[in-house]
TrEMBL record:
Protein family membership: Belongs to the aldehyde dehydrogenase family.
Chain ranges of the Aldehyde dehydrogenase domain: 27-486
Protein name according to UniProt: NAD-dependent succinate-semialdehyde dehydrogenase
Keyword terms, alphabetized: Oxidoreductase
The organism of origin for this protein: Isoptericola cucumis
Membrane-traversing stretches: none
Amino acid sequence: MAAAPLSPALVAHLPTGMLAGGHWGPAAGGRTFEVADPATGQVLFDVADASADDGRRALDSASGAAAAWRAVAPRERSELLRAVYERIVARADAFASLITAECGKPLAEARAEVLYGADFLRWYAEQAVRTDGLVRTAPAGTNRQHVHRRPVGPALLVTPWNFPIAMATRKIGPALAAGCTVVIKPAHATPLTTMLVAEVIRSELADRGLPAGVVNVVPTTSAGDVVGPLLADERLRKLSFTGSTAVGSSLLRQAADQVLNCSMELGGNAPFVVFADADLDAALEGATVAKLRNAGQSCVAANRFLVHDSLAREFARRLADRFARLRVGRGWDDGVDVGPLIDARAVEKVDALVSDATDHGAQVLTGGSAPDGPGSFYTPTVLAGVDAGQRVVREEIFGPVAPVVAFADDDEAIELANDTEYGLAAYAYTTSLDRALRASDEIEAGMIGINRGMVSDASAPFGGVKQSGLGREGGEAGLEEYLETVYVAL
Ligand code: NAD
């Protein structure tokens, strides 16, 4: 079986250790874990498996570099980020091949992720020199009020496996721009891309004579053992987490002991609403994008297709026709549209949701099974006649499955859209301005795409309401998460 095609130059320069104090090295005791290609199951690399002591060593480094880094002029921090952005874009193909190898997504999607991910570095390079304060006279005229911003301090960044460059740069960009040093704990399924980003930053810092410990990386299979003690360490001043709501809320409980500043980007259950007056061709195009990016393994993936009664049958049939024509396969093969899921457990979970739906009366219009052979694939699936109470509608699917639920009128559409504990992304298709405005006012979500199947942009605030999170990444708001406000009366 062919192995993922990684260039010898990339392999030669790929760090596989942990990064602390500006040096890549082994974890304590030399422990390692295997990173595998989900399309083949083949082991790609052995990576350092950090322990709690290694985590502390990384925080020693971030904490030791904090004063020097915050003293670096904003312009210099900006230029560093800009240089890292340019180096990543110049090597976009190499980064994309690494994402495809460890995460599975098709090369074209991986390349798009590299550009999207790098854009956070460019945007925050531009924002690093725009931290505003305020000076004004107190209303009583007795004194001046001087409000300024300063970096919150050393930050722990915990990221998920599904967008290994973008999830890292969305945190590293604003943290470094604000003047914070960081410890990054990437997901153990896909640590390599994040480690390569860290290596580019490490070498830029070294070339510019800037502090070595600004960025530190602790890959590990013992996330709880490494993260727990860091959350209890008073040198840590910030947690920025992206991942599931279950893990996020447990980290919030741990962070409460220190009253730690937290930003949480958590799970989603995005409704994709097709109103009676929608342009159906546009809705089908948007639905395919919103559902199948990264084989449905995205927090903003459309999870539930809520379609007006008059369109539901046609929408489901035509979506199934589209899905049936897509090519599922290894991400680096030509013409592949949909790659594998991250591992066998993910396939089992998706298959269980589909079986539960069919057991309760849903019909499979296309897909509905995992193909035989190596790799953790699942066939793009459309389910019709789904009831809004079924598990496939209530849970985050994280796979290429589109359940279609019919609704009778606009009130019911909005009610169904909001009938979830999540509130990350939502999509609405309509040709009526009134309906578009109602959807933007009444759907409980942090991001709403109107006649668009994609909402993410480095310059816009990304984040959720309800159990989808706290805080925002991207845009001006993303920098705020790494700054604190100080008021001086004088
Ligand atoms: P996950 O919650 O299992 O893991 C996320 C990170 O937390 C990983 O680095 C993991 O190692 C770490 N972790 C796991 N258990 C931990 C513990 N006990 N203590 C400390 N750290 C721990 O999520 P995942 O499977 O990697 O990613 C999928 C989830 O992430 C989905 O729910 C998805 O919606 C969500 N997600 C959200 C966003 C967003 O921006 N809102 C973006 C991408 C993914």
